[in-house]
Amino acid sequence: MKAYAKANIFLKLSGFDSRKYHLLESRFILLKDIFDELELVDKTSSEEFEIISNFECENNIIQKAYWLLSKSYGKELKELFSKKSLKLTKNIPVCAGLGGGSSDCASFLKLVNESLNLKLSLQELIALSTQLGSDIAFFLSGFNSANVSGCGEIIEEFEDEIPNLAWTFPQISCQTKAVYDEFDKGSFDFEKNKKQAEIYKKLSTKELLKNFKNKELNDLLTPCATLYPKMKPYLEEDFFLSGSGSSVFKVVK
After folding, report:
1. Active-site choice (36, 104, 135, 160)
2. Which of 80, 89, 164, 243 has the highest CB neighbour number within 10 Å of its CB?
3. pLDDT category, 55, cuts 50, 70, 90?
4. Residue 12 catalytic?
5. Residue 6: which of 128, 117, 137, 127 has the closest Cα?
6. How far apart are CA 253 and CA 235, in angstroms?
7. Cα 12 from Cα 193, distance rounded (Å)
């Protein structure tokens, strides 16, 4: 099963929820040329649940999803993973603003749902995903483009026009929490951000990237470049940032 990456075309922060988590308004698009792969393979160890991967999986969100599902389907999961291991081939850059971990988690939930015929509906899967992470709901939705709000759980499909994008993946590990914390140190106007987001939500990706500057579209670009000085040239050279970084892109003219 393919776990596709995503890009944020715009990302405006609009407040905090009751847990003090940042609320956002964003346009997500699915990147079908960049993906991880998940599959069930024959068991290779005595571990109850094993992830075989080409990267370090300790404290992986998939493990958290496994334990969450185990609360309701422990017997079924134990039986499945007594014979099978999960193989994860990692291609999406890590700590790059492309939602790789969230996409992997969404694909794992779908893979288990199908393999065990749990018959969990899309809404039930999304409800589970909100206990695990912010972007997972978008990957479960199956949408190619959507306006996303709240903490990532409110998703509205958008009929989009997406230009050809050229990607650059700097070898810089941008830590999401650190970038958000850096944003909080600066001055911001959530009401202004909400008004800008309402404009952005009505425009296609092509229109957004043509008519607005990189710093206007993504509130995390400036704090990212402040926290990680090697990102500053991308800000100055008019690259657009996905999420909290470090992946950047331009429109191919």
Report:
1. 135
2. 243
3. confident
4. no
5. 137
6. 19
7. 6
* Sheet strands (E) in 47-186: 51-53, 84-89, 145-150, 154-157, 165-168
SS (H, E, C) 166-227: EEECCCCCCCHHHHHHHHHHCCCCHHHHHHHHHHHCCCCHHHHHHHCCHHHHECCHHHHHHH
The values of phi and psi at residue 171, to 5°, are -80, 60
Give the tens place of pLDDT for each residue, 82-101.
Answer: 999 999 999 999 989 999 99
Residue 46 confidence (pLDDT):
81
Q: Are strands 248-251 and 240-241 parallel, antiparallel or unpaired?
A: antiparallel
Rounded mean pLDDT of the chain? 95
Which element (helix H / strand E) includes 110? Answer: helix 100-115
**C-beta atoms surrounding 111 within 10 Å:** 17
For 26, the 3-state DSSP assignment is strand
Query: What's residue 56's pLDDT?
Result: 74
**Catalytic site residue 219?**
no
> pTM for the whole thing?
0.94
Q: Which of 165, 63, 43 is nearest to 104 (CA)?
A: 63
> Using an 8 Å Cβ cutoff, are 162 and 29 in contact?
yes
For tokens 């040329």, name the residue.
Answer: 33
β-strand pairing of 2-16 with 154-157: unpaired
CA distance 219 to 243: 9
> Facing residues of 154 across strands?
149
Which residue type, as a one-letter code, is found at position 58? Answer: E
